[in-house]
Amino acid sequence: MNTNDDAQTASAAPELTTPAQWLGYLREYSEVFLRTANEYQLAAITADQEDTGWMGREPATEEAVRAAEQRLGVRLPPSYRAFLLASDGFDGLGGWVDAASGCADVAWLRDTDTGASLVDLYADTDYAELFGRALAVAEGEDLWLLDPEGAGPDEEWTAHLFAPKYGELEDCADFADLFRESRELMEELG
Questions:
Q1: Residue 74 CA: distances (Å) to CA of 70, 83, 133
Q2: Which of 49, 90, 106, 149 is the most exposed place for a label (fewest CB within 10 A)?
Q3: 108 near 129, Cβ under 8 Å?
Q4: In angstroms, rounded to a whole number, what is the distance separating the alpha carbons of residues 50 and 144?
């Protein structure tokens, strides 16, 4: 890939570090989803979501975010925290991911039914360690994972899109990057 194209894409990517930035981005994302969704995706949304054009949920409170962090035993990365404070979960993600998890649903992958199966299935592979420590932040046919071991100086965690059907793992810079890539895929396919 052309590094100039990468630099232009990165500079054009919206900053998603505050709840207000996330809210604006998620409103645009909702519009793109509704414009590009297939029949299967549209069948999974509510009439209210279709009428309002909003695929998000009510914002989480700071107390709810802290309770999730206490339950998980970690401080969540800044981009995911800001997302939760804008929308405590999000339906209608593009591609093969159904919904981003809110405070009550976010869990260590190993503690989910899907994750326990993946940990067993990939026990003798390079993925085993990641699956044992990753936080599952969105599920569907594919999964969005955050890796606390990949935390950078900005406290963001490396993010991953995992496609179990193909056994493929795609690395992303952080949680916000997962959303950006999902939106790009929706726009390409739509």
A1: 7, 17, 12
A2: 149
A3: no
A4: 24
pLDDT, one tens digit per residue, over 65-100 is 999 999 999 999 999 999 999 999 999 887 789 899
**pLDDT for position 13:** 67
CA distance 152 to 134: 15
Predicted pLDDT at 174: 96
User: Alpha-carbon distance 64 to 68, whole Å?
Assistant: 6
DSSP code at position 77: P
Which residues does 139 contact at the CB level (< 8 Å), separation at least 6?
97, 98, 99, 101, 112, 114
Q: How many Cα atoms within 13 Å fall on the side-chain side of residue 15?
A: 3
- Are 76 and 156 within 8 A, CB to CB? no
